[in-house]
Amino acid sequence: MAIYADMHVHTTFSSDGKGSMDEMIQKALSLGLRHICFTEHNDFDYPRHEGDPENIFLLNVDSYLYELLTKREKYGDRIKILFGIELGVDPAIVQKNIALSQSHDFDFIIASSHVCHGRDPYYPDFYEGRSEKEAYREYFESELENVQKFSNFDVYGHLDYVVRYGPTQNRNYRYADYGEIIDEILRFLIKNNKGLEVNTGGFRCGIGSTNPCIDIIKRYHELGGRVITIGSDAHEPKYLTDQFSATCEMLQEIGFKYYAVYEKRQPEYFKLDTLL
Predict the structure, then answer these.
(1) What is the pLDDT of residue 29?
(2) Where are the alpha helices (DSSP H) in the chain?
(3) Domains of the chain (ranges plus CATH)?
(4) Which of 48, 49, 87, 148 is deepest in the core (most CB within 10 A)?
């Protein structure tokens, strides 16, 4: 592995997290990481399902920050602990996200599409009554609308998240089927100095790939995009840095030489083949 920063990590401060901050940091130290960025979920107006708590995916940022600061005191001489957030974005909640993103001095903000027009693609009802391709197209179109309406983020997360949960996942999925929309998203990110997250969580979801897929990452590079962060999207310690070695090789083959680590919303670049 030649990536020593995991820039997408969740703990029990996220509604679906299964590891404490201590457990995540201790695992990161055992892996030799130099940076770990906690990116706890916040999704305003998340569509609740049966059994969901009333405040699902609403983050108590003050409690989260207090815990993070105590861990900096405890571990700060061994690992850089970064204060991030993963904002679920949607046109209906732009003002709420603007307010939250400005409420604290985050090191790093990921914008992610977990909800598309009031439905989460994680659930089967998103795909009912239409083709998989139509559902995927709606998802990408909503992402384009998201980047055009909300700008206070650093990278866009798991750009093709929808394919993790579609009826056939990525077996019939081709970047070319949505290329005109995806290219517009990528050009917008590049023009506005936003990065693209390379998220390895897709491997454990059964698609055998990063999110976004290699063709989108290649296209981002072809269009001139060079700002990438790499995150495992780990919700429990065992998934920290999952598939980072294979991802590093893939990125180098595409032509990337550096990856970004954000602190105080500013990227610092590190070679893919060297220690931080």
Answers:
(1) 98
(2) 21-30, 61-75, 94-101, 132-149, 179-191, 201-204, 214-222, 244-254
(3) 5-271 (3.20.20.140)
(4) 87
